[in-house]
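Worked example 4.2. Below are the chains of a multi-component assembly; read each line carefully before continuing.
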Amino acid sequence: MTEIRLTNTLTRRKETFTPIDPDRVRMYVCGPTVYDRAHLGNARPVVVFDTLFRLLRQVYGPRHVVYVRNFTDVDDKIIARARESGRPIAQITAETTAWYLEDMAALGALEPTHMPRATEYIAEMVAMIETLLARGCAYVAEGHVLFDVSSDPDYGILSGRSVEDMIAGARVEIAPYKRNPMDFVLWKPSDAEQPGWDSPWGRGRPGWHIECSAMSLKLLGDCFDIHGGGNDLMFPHHENELAQSSCAHPGACFARFWLHNEMLQVEGKKMSKSLGNFFTVRDLLDQGVPGEVIRFVFLLTHYRKPMDWTRRKADEAAAALRRWRRMTEGVAPAPAPDPAVVAAVADDLNTPRALAELHRLAAEGRADVLLASARFLGLLTEALGDWARAGGADPEAAARIDRLLAERAAARKARDFARADAIRDALVAAGVIVKDTPDGAEWEVGPDFDPAGLEGVL
RNA sequence: GGCGUGGUGGCAGAGUGGUCUAAUGCCGCGGAUUGCAAAUCCGUCGUCUCGCGGGUUCGAAUCCCGCCCACGCCUCCA
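Applying the procedure described above to all two chains together yields the following structure tokens:
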């Protein structure tokens, strides 16, 4: 059986992964807060853990892997969005959830086995908070329930911080009812305007961290295999989850492997609204960047390194995918992916190496193995292939392009090269890639295609 | 201030003790093709080197120490 090695944040080392139960390999990944479209940075962990999901399914069998990714549908950001837009919360979360699934599907991400919504697990959260209170890890203060960080001698073990260090330069919220500045909210009161649920501490709503502890417990048990997310979640979110779950279930492991992906940058800089380089997955798709290309670009960088999204990489990715799609057209996939590709992914998700193996297979002309191996990575699937097939233009523009090319062919036949080249230059200027073959001209639209540029050419 | 990640050939990006004078892709270069191009295909290229300075070792890009730099997290935005 393929040996899987993964870098475990808990130990900061690459370790051999052995599931607790090979018939039921369990992974939990923190999902989105649903109040707006997912931006490109949100998509990176999705693709990273989708790749891990695919690996686990390959090694242990699709029926033996349980992957949970939650939706946070109760949160102050959502409340704020509802207030400013005047729309009901349920409408916002439902719409955003649907968008998220659409956009991630466009990246070739498989749907997790379970996608629990936080609001459906309020009872479990309340129960866990009661356990934490009973065990003396939490206290009630002014309608809030807070986790008492001092009750956990291991607090900080995941993120490598000590409570003292954190307090030193901390920018934590200083609330008067906190015993310790690092204590965090498990439950907070809601006013009449805010969503709330009845609880032993009055009508209120959960803090951010408790949902993942409660939902993972319900769906995966108190000791599961892998817990993942972006490294921005390492502290405080995951640290707090770990503290809560450990206190509620002393002696249980909670999660044995913690995996964190590095952040995404855009053209060398952090993606942020203030820098003006902030964009969503949908923005990119609407600009004509295919989801498959986005996925390929993500796979090009190891998940533990910062990934720089650049236009140039997207263009290179598109070229490689076009080539491979042409090569595998009409080819039946081999029964299994190439062992070297699986081995690369099994080695701490070394997707750059896996892509290099794909290039090797292409160079060797093994189209069927290339296809099976690429699909193992979520590439060259039928679902993601429309962009490469259709040429990418709407029917009206397509007809116009065909007409122009026919005109050009006639001009070439008449050896009126000035006219032929003028037409060609116009098409190129409009972003159409014209490809002359021995059987006549073919075309497809490039990333800068602008149908308006076709008008008035003749 | 605390914590973390990383600095590899023109670019991207693997490699983490010997098979590395460093995978793979891109770019460049040569050729095929073309009326000329583009696209495509074939071939070819990266000699004193892996941020800098020490050290360990028979041997280091790979381990240790120090330094410099970049980026990120601890902040609404992942």
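Take a moment to check your reading of the output against the notes. Chain A has a mean pLDDT of 90. Chain A has 16 helices and 15 strands.
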